[in-house]
Amino acid sequence: MKLPAPIFVVFFLFFSTFIFAQNNFEFDKLSGENISTQSITYAIKQDSIGNIWIASEEGVIKYDSKQIKIYNTYDGLPENLNNRVTALFVDSKQRVWIGLENGLCLYDKAFDKFNLIQSEIDINPSLITSIAEDDTGNIWIGGFNGLWKVNNETLKLSKKGNSLNIQTIAFKNDILIYGTLNGLFSYDSKTDVVTEILENQSLKNISFIGNVKDNTYAGLKSGAIYILNTSLTRANKVDLAFQIKHPIKDLITDNNSNIYIATDGEGIYYLNKDFKLISHFRENVDNPFSISSNGVYDIEFGDENILWVATYSGGINYLDFNKKPFQRFKHLLNTNNSIATDFSRSIAEDKYGNIWFGTTKGISVWNPKSNTWKQIPEITPNKNKEDDIVLALESDNDYMWAGTYNRGLFKININNFSATPYTHETNKTIDLEKIYTVFKDSKNNIWFGGIDGSLTVIRQNSRVDEYPIYQIKHLTESKSGHILASGRYGIYKINDANKEFELIEKLKPNKVNLAYATINAVQETTNGNLVLATNGSGLVFYNVKNKSIKKLTIASNLPSDIVQGVLLDDNIVWASTTKGLAQIKITETDTIINVFDKKEGMASTEFNYGSFAKFSNGKFAFGGRDGVTIFNPKNILESNYKPNIVFDEFKLFNKVIDAGKKPLSKHVNEVDKIILTAKENSIELGFTGILHSSASKVKYSWKLEGFDENWSEPSTVNFATYTNLAPNNYIFKVRAYNKYATVSDERQIQIKVLPPWWATNQAYVLYVLLFLLLIVAIVHFTSVIVKKKNADQQIDFFNNITHEIKTPLTILISSLDNITENIGTGEDSKKRIKTTVKRINSLFEQMLNFQKVTSEGYVLNEISEIDLNTHINKRIYNFGPLTQQSNLQIKFNNNFNEPYFYFDKEVFDKIFLNLLSNAIKYSFENGTITINLDKTAKNGLQIEIIDEGLGIPKDQQKYILTRYYRARNVINSQRPGTGLGLMMVKKLLEKTGGSIDFVSEENKGTKFTIQLKSLKYEYDKQLQQKESTIGTIEVENEDRSELDAFSDSKILIVEDNDELRQLLVDTLGVYFQVFEAINGKEGLEIASQIFPNIILTDLIMPELDGMQMARQLKDDINLNHIPVFMLTVLQNSAQKIESIETGISEYIEKPIDIKFLLAKIINTLKWQKKLRDKFKHDNDSDNASLFRNKNDQDFLQNLEDKILENIENESFSVHDLSGSFSISRTSLYMKLKNLVDLSPQDFIIHTKLKYAKKLLIEGDCSIKEVAYRSGFSNPKYFSTSFKKFYKMTPSGFLESLKQE
User: What are φ and ψ of residue 332, in 5° steps?
Assistant: First the structure.
């Protein structure tokens, strides 16, 4: 601040007492959302999850960034101990150890409690002061009664050495060193010998030993600090530019190698790496941001760039370096060298860079360069001696305009702080006293407005003008030169040159979309649009060109709808609200809102209107009820710290379930699955995303798979409740987000709600058994009834058949007798014999056709184009002799009107001829038979056959389409028949999607109506299949490269059809080595000789069919790895299932598509290659997903097991291995080469190396011992083989494990 010399002297003398300046390093006091911490603390550590563990006078404290939990003898500590915890340590396995006055405890995370570590002798360690871990993971304890060690296997304590009253312990180059009141000592664990070190330097009263970077430091109770050399033969004192007179308790460094020294009496010294003082953190009762006690017992630099401090009598303090960009200004007690009060109403910067704060106690002026303050409680003296309430400040060269709530407007000289009032008393034209805003426009006019007077302008010539505009809270100037006056009624746009003004209509308050009480501030964006801070409608964005409005409110994640101020930083909007400072980033696709409050370094969470400003150096200032925050928005960087999710608690019916109590076998954070009964269907899961740097901003989203369809909207709620869960398997998943929407790793717990007893699997099994018993009973009694009925029908049927067959046989025998005895003419007898034989043949043909049609596997033969007119006339003509015998006339009416009907011609004839022959058979003489053809929907065919014959009795019509049945009047008429014809017609129609119906009247005739489905689609498909015949297919050029890669593969073709076999040999022989066999027996013999890669076999063959051959291959250990492709015309699904169960790899139907067959062959060969490559690469035979069948996997596993059983047998050979499985050496070689591309000898070495690798990982043996234990007689050969398979030596492999 520039001042004239005399005034500066007065100013300096007056403010010479301003010796304390607000510090950029501001400590906070730790307090959870539920309880506060203890004031007396001894140690503090952070685990890998992020929990802060604190040793205190009243027990152990765990802080997860949200909640505090205290473990004491009432909850979590053994009851026979006291609550005073003096030491705390988190080891490399993340186990938490605590030392107490009379014992050592270890945290059991499964049950969320500490267990006492038992001693091998009758006494326990007492007054434990230090806990440490050596390089091998052993835990060592130092205390009043000496040195102790924890046995890693038994977890029991044993006493070591004979020293007493150990103050601190540490390790230096695998040597345990400890400090006592009498000096510094080392302990040799192998000899149990204690040796005093640095005896000649008289290092006494050791209070701290620790390793920092590559150095080991020793701190004394006198405050001296020494660096120990590597050999522990010399200690160099650290020279400091200042003197420490109190005990050294801890010494650590941060990521920048800066050093922190904790003392018991002088707070914390913050030094650079050269031990030069950066800052000294001490308790200051007048500064709320100072450390709360000078007795600092432990410090810990945490994972999120936070310094944690354990103090004696001051509890836990922490310094969050993430808050460093925020500079907080609060009133300090008992000094004027701070802002007069926390409550500010206005902020401005003068031309010297000094910052002016308008408060409820006048004006405070801060000089950033000297960090000194000037207080102006009364701008000018007033008779009531009241402090001025300053609501507005505006810089004007050498002056600062100040608007007050109680005394009007003042013009203050910034050099000497003299002030000139501009009030009604000094200028009658000014009637405004409660001034909320002051603004200097581009023409140097001073505008000011308020709530109880007109908007007023003071011109450069001191002329005062007024505009009849009231209730103004903010003034600014647009790029177009218009003055924007905002307040209760909206925004007035003022053209001062023309003395015109208008209210922007779209921004007037209304109940629909702009229900605000007032507009507190307005800013203009670079493109001329307006951003409004409103009291009630949040943040409003107004597009000047199209007059559109967009809002951000609480519903848009704005912290409050009351926005007090707004500033712009390029495209980022900063808005101060009553519930935090919002940073708003708007893109074309998204709007991101980040909120800052006290917990992240802000001085205040509730901000005031008018109290905001942008300074010449780009910094922003926002003031509120609890102080002012100044920061550079460019320095606010997004944090990449992710929350770590832990499950806190589990509730059933709103009752917390403790660890170990049903249904929790362990603490909820340690379980993977929770099983609930059907009644336990109302649950609540609590969780916390540990993030100390911004705990209050952590948001959670969760989903219960099996219940929720979508993830919940992110919110700060950290528990999920579900009621009335139905029996099912659920997975609860939860994520956490930091304030910048960086998502954490997902946590999940399986939750299974069991069904009630009547809905369990056992109950369902019982229900099924009862149901099956009921079905069996029904089937049994039904079958009894049906059998009786069928027996009667079968008796009638066989009587009919017997009669029908006996009659022609009688004729046949009689005719033969006539020929033998020369009775009658020979020609007549021959004719009767011929006719009789035809009739017998017809009877048998009907029975065979019926059996074929009614079988499950009956399918259509070939779909044909049928010219109905020609085809049916031919069939009618063929019946000419029969119709002539009875003088019958057949009328044919064809109304189908399509050139062709598409159907199976054989099936069509069976249906049509059966019905027509029946019509002829049962018609009276001289009658007429009518045949009508009509078209149905989708080009189907309807056939009507009408006769004038016997008809069917009405009471027997319902049986006429059942098996074996013949009507009574037909039997009496002596007309031949079996009762099978109509049944066969019905079955054929059912199989082809058709239907049959009839109308009949006894002695008048019968009309049969059938409907046939057009099979045009099947006909077209059949044509396409015919066109793509097996002999005309060529392989595309692009497939040749893949085929060439497998040209050495062996394909065995087993097919009894010579023509098809030769065709396959010629086609596949172009690409592979092809071998052939004519039946399954020959195929097995050839397979045993050549060991093919794939076998193609027909199903039906002489001597040994394809199915039988596949079974024998599956049972043969030499050949069961070979894939088998079954080629057949059978389409029976049951046949396919049987093929697969027999070991068939692929099922390929005839006619064969060569492209499809080649694709299947290539895929199988590629899979075999992939299996071999992956086995050698991953060195793993127990990955079931690699193998096409379990036999291959089991075979390799059995081989490995046999090798490992004989691993120490140096004489165990390939011959012994093959003999163990009753397989020849050749078969074993071929099988292993096919499966994993390894010879038997390489496979043995490979298995031994796998075992050696396992031993190396376990780390219990040297490399030479591993070589011998894994069956290698020569360690050098072992190293060579290991490097060949694993691309690194055994020693290199061990080094890689250490790096991981």
Answer: -100, 140
Residue 755 preceded by cis peptide, ω within 30: no
Using alpha carbons, select from 640, 872, 823, 18 the residue that is nearest to residue 375: 18
CA dist., res. 741 & res. 474, Å (int): 34
Q: How much helix, strand and coil, in percent to the nearest 5, is found in the chain?
A: 30, 35, 40
pTM above 0.85, yes or no: no
Please give the single-letter amino acid code of residue 986: K
What whole-number distance in Å separates Cα of residue 977 and Cα of residue 966? 8
Say if residues 849 and 984 touch (Cβ distance below 8 Å). Answer: yes
1024: how many CB neighbours lie within 10 A of its CB?
A: 8
- Write the CA distances from 1211 to 359, 1204, 1214, 1247, 1250, integer angstroms: 96, 13, 10, 16, 20
Output the CA torsion 541→542→548→550 (10° steps): 10
Q: How far, in Å, CA of 607 to CA of 567, rounded?
A: 14
3-class state of residue 1299 by DSSP: helix
Is the separation of the CB atoms in 956 and 989 below 8 Å? no
State the DSSP code for 602: -
3-state secondary structure of 667: coil
Burial (CB count within 10 angstroms: exposed 0-12, middle 13-18, buried 19+), residue 499: exposed
* Domains contained in the chain, CATH given: 40-251 (2.130.10.10), 644-759 (2.60.40.10), 762-858 (1.10.287), 861-1021 (3.30.565.10), 1028-1169 (3.40.50.2300), 1180-1299 (1.10.10.60)
CA distances from 731 to 663, 721, 728, 736, 748 (A): 16, 14, 10, 17, 7
Burial (Cβ within 10 Å: 0-12, 13-18, ≥19) of residue 1297: exposed
Question: CB-based burial of residue 190 (10 Å sphere; 0-12 exposed, 13-18 middle, 19+ buried)?
Answer: exposed
Strand order in the sheet with 455-458: 435-440, 446-450, 455-458, 464-467
- Alpha-carbon distance 198 to 217, whole Å? 13
Q: How far is CA 871 from CA 75, 866, 867, 907, 933, in A?
A: 99, 7, 6, 13, 13
Do 699 and 716 meet the contact criterion of CB atoms below 8 Å apart? Answer: yes
Phi and psi at residue 944, in whole multiples of 5°? -115, 130
Residue 596: CB atoms within 10 A of its CB come to 26
Q: Where are the beta strands (DSSP E) in 739-860?
A: 747-753
Tokens standing for residue 1255 = 């031993």
Cα–Cα distance, 155 to 175 (Å, whole number): 22
Residue 817 CA to residue 811 CA, distance in Å, equals: 10
Residue 361, SS3?
coil
CA atoms of 1266 and 84, how far apart (whole Å): 49
pLDDT averaged per 10 residues, the chain (length 1300): 37 34 72 77 96 95 92 94 95 96 95 94 92 92 94 91 88 89 88 82 88 91 92 89 95 93 96 94 89 96 93 93 85 89 96 96 94 92 85 95 91 94 74 91 94 90 91 94 95 94 94 92 94 96 94 93 95 95 89 88 93 96 95 87 94 93 93 94 95 89 95 94 95 93 93 90 87 89 74 52 47 52 55 55 52 52 84 83 84 89 85 85 87 88 90 78 59 56 80 87 88 86 60 44 75 84 84 88 87 86 84 78 78 57 73 78 80 59 50 75 75 74 74 72 77 76 77 77 78 72
d(CA 445, CA 467): 14
Q: Could you tell me the two tokens for 834? A: 């011929």
**Vertex 1000: Cα angle to 999 and 1005 (nearest 5):** 125
